[in-house]
Write a structure and sequence with these properties.
Blueprint: E1 10-14, H1 16-27, E2 35-36, E3 38-39, H2 41-45, H3 49-58, E4 63-66, H4 69-77, E5 83-86, H5 95-100, E6 104-107, H6 110-118, E7 124-130, E8 138-139, H7 143-150, E9 156-161, H8 172-194, E10 201-203, H9 207-212, E11 220-221, E12 247-259, E13 264-265, E14 271-272, E15 277-282, E16 299-302, E17 305-310, E18 318-321, E19 333-340, E20 343-345, H10 347-353, H11 358-363, E21 370-373
Parallel strand pairs: 1-21, 2-11, 3-4, 4-5, 5-6, 6-7, 7-8, 7-9, 9-10
Antiparallel strand pairs: 1-12, 12-15, 12-19, 13-14, 15-18, 16-17, 16-19, 17-18, 19-20
Helix pairs in contact: 1-3
């Protein structure tokens, strides 16, 4: 994209080629017979759900996961084909929409399955099995309840799945917990096969499960954050495969001002100039998804140089100390996530400085940001 063609305020630049690259690399880690269920919930972690699904479909991906009925309907409305699994709760009264849009629904517990079955609508489901997350699903211990749901008339339960709660942790206790989760799910799978449920579709691994805990016998893997080329927790995380960040967050300098010694910047007078400083006002704020917790903690790139954020982040603006970047002028581009020259700020670094994880940071990037794809 040429410099003059870039948006005027704040925007995301999303590399479709990097999405393709990451998809191929992750598929290369999957055993024979296992396919990718691309997780495109939360607007594909801020990358654009429709565009992400479309480009992955071109690479052969035919199964997607979303969080809600509405997210699934959006994909169908844009012409996305293949299977789409709703990972979250859908009210039984909306079962007609699941049928109309040909969406697969997660059964979150036995009562939910029974309520969906009573609607009379033809729905394909996957049953969530709880192996220690204690969120959605029937406990792996309650095999009788699981079999009751699998045998319910009125819904077609195609598969079962679970979720790993600490697969991203290097701590020995967490590794042991993850291995127990996997063992318990595989034991349930074997039990059900012995009871006649040999054709169940099974899946358990998300990004870190795939990267750190290889599993045989699964029909799907559900990559999320790794699909977008990011680590979740710290910049020090190392993966066994080369992934490329697909997103850059940029904005423009709206104005530049000189503040004198003793002057304060932004709300609350939290930052005081100790000497004369040059301050740039970025055209981006927490209403765009830039965490307010980055106030006084974050950095950005201006003309290839790192500069600190100063003062509290506002709803629509954020201030930078650009005293050491004398050549910067109004209208210059600021990079908050991405590369400028030899310097790079990764999403995981920005998230760590904000006291959160990359998944939250990316998924909260607001609708005011223009998305550009290349």
């Amino acid at each position: 994209m040429k410099l003059e063609e870039r948006p005027g305020r704040a925007w995301l630049e999303i590399s479709l080629e990097n999405l393709r690259w990451n998809y191929k690399k992750l598929c290369g880690l999957m055993p024979a017979g296992c396919k990718c269920m691309a997780v495109v919930k939360a607007d594909a972690y801020g990358h654009g759900a429709v565009q992400t699904a479309q480009v992955l479909a071109e690479e052969g991906c035919d199964t997607f996961a979303v969080a809600s009925l509405e997210e699934g309907m959006e994909l169908r409305g844009a012409g996305v084909q293949g299977k789409i699994l709703v990972l979250g709760y859908t009210m039984p009264r909306d079962a007609f929409l699941l049928e109309r849009y040909q969406l697969m629904q997660t059964v979150v517990d036995e009562a939910h399955g029974a309520a969906l079955a009573r609607t009379g609508h033809k729905i394909t489901c996957h049953l969530a099995v709880d192996t220690g997350m204690n969120r959605l699903g029937i406990s792996y211990r309650d095999r009788a309840a699981i079999e009751r749901v699998l045998g319910m008339e009125g819904i077609r339960v195609e598969g079962i799945y679970s979720h790993l709660s600490v697969a991203d942790s290097p701590l020995p206790a967490d590794k042991n917990f993850t291995e127990k989760q996997i063992a318990d799910f595989l034991a349930l799978k074997s039990y059900l096969e012995e009871r006649g449920w040999q054709k169940l579709v099974c899946h358990m691994q998300s990004s870190y499960g795939l990267l750190y805990y290889p599993m045989e016998g699964m029909q799907y893997v559900r990559p999320g954050i790794a699909l977008y080329g990011c680590a979740s927790n710290t910049p020090e995380e190392k993966f066994c495969v080369d992934l490329k960040p697909a997103l850059q967050l940029k904005c423009r300098i709206g104005c530049i001002r000189t503040v004198e010694q003793g002057d304060f910047v932004s709300y609350g007078r939290t930052w005081e100039a100790k000497e004369r400083r040059r301050v740039a006002v970025m055209a981006i704020g927490y209403a765009d998804g830039l965490p307010r917790s980055l106030s006084g903690q974050g950095q950005a790139l201006v003309l290839g140089k790192r500069v600190p954020m100063v003062g509290r982040i506002c709803m629509d603006q954020t201030m930078l100390d650009i005293t050491d970047v004398r050549e910067a002028v109004e209208g210059d581009i600021v990079t908050l996530i991405g590369r400028d020259g030899t310097e790079e700020i990764k999403a995981v670094e920005l998230a760590q400085n904000a006291g959160t994880i990359t998944n939250e940071l990316l998924s909260r990037l607001g609708g005011r940001l223009t998305k550009t794809f290349w």
